[in-house]
Fold this protein.
Amino acid sequence: MALRKLDQARTRAATITDQSNFDEGCRMVGPIKVSGNRTLATFIRDSFNDELKFAGVFDDTQTKPALNAALTRAAFSSSAGLTSGWWDLAWTLTNPTNGKSLSATIKYDFSTNFVGEIACKNVAEALVPAVQLLINKTVTSPEFRA
């Protein structure tokens, strides 16, 4: 795992701002619900911190400056090409100590359905792998070590 290569480097994402204007509505079915009734931005931040914990590089002592995160784009489609969908996510992490930032963007494709309830269920289920892809793209970037 890329995070385990960070050795003694420890960090966490302390804050996240949502600059995405995310519309959670899916067809006429209703909103896409995020696990734990969190906002999408909070879910992404928490998922990132969970990955850091799993890799043993999460700073739970709060002795090092935490990264600031901004969700800059969040959108999905449940009807691209009739039975396809996608998540489009982008965020920026900033190190307040040195001012360096890293941005990552992903588009995650998945299958949906003609039926709205099924399509929107698929959108919700595709969120976790989409967020995992965003985190992976972030931590495997050469700039992440900086």
Summary: The first helix runs from residue 40 to 55. The longest strand covers residues 67-80. The chain has one domain: 2-145. Helices lie at 40-55, 116-139.
